[in-house]
Amino acid sequence: MVILFALVLMGIVVVNLLPEDERLSRWVSGVVVLGGVGLVGMALVLAVVSRGDIGEGGDDSFRMAVLMMPAVQVALFFLGGWIVVVGLPVVRRRLGEVTALKPASLVHLLALLMIGLLLTNALFTLALGSLEAVAATAEGQSVWATLSQPLFFSLVAIVGVGYGTRRSGEEVLARLGVGRLSSHQISLGMGLIVALFVMQLIGGLVWGYLNPDEVALLGEINSEVLREFDTFWEWLLLALFVGVGEELLFR
Description:
Blueprint: H1 2-17, H2 22-49, H3 60-87, H4 89-98, H5 106-127, H6 131-137, H7 143-160, H8 169-176, H9 183-210, H10 212-225, H11 232-250
Helix pairs in contact: 1-7, 2-3, 3-5, 6-10, 7-11, 9-10
């Protein structure tokens, strides 16, 4: 996982170093579109292969693979389609007419591709179809493994806006909107925290009343995935890392 994170960050640095050249952008766009077509093809092949009767035998790994197969197909098809669409220069030119997107910018193309990855990750969980399927595939993670993802999000945001290549440290902070909080922002933030907590509490009570079995199963999933978190400071670190990491990445 560390090697994968390092390769992604190195790729982002390289993309930031490349010039905004129209010819280079067209060449990279062609490679991206071909990659997206390949993913769609993989999804179609898996759909054909998995149509047969696969039986009920096999070990736990086999049964888990069978259970996840429809979600994998949906995720591959969606991601491949997304890559094909955003890889087309004409699509990015149209987006550039209504947003600040630069059609020839490889940095902006990379940002669009990473948006697709985030959406695919969410879609994969939904495509599992039920909490039972999610519970069957849930695995416990160490504290470091859980915190590494939001930390990676923060690094992607910092490197992605050009730290060390196109912008200085102060310029990166300004680009990401990171600065000293005002008393108004702190008050507003605390008020939103209270309001969201009350909304979540009411939603949880209503859900628990309407479907107590699903609430219990969701609790089991969370307990399994976050079983290594057993102190206040670990939970505080998780909240800080997730909140800061996702916010920076979206910015």
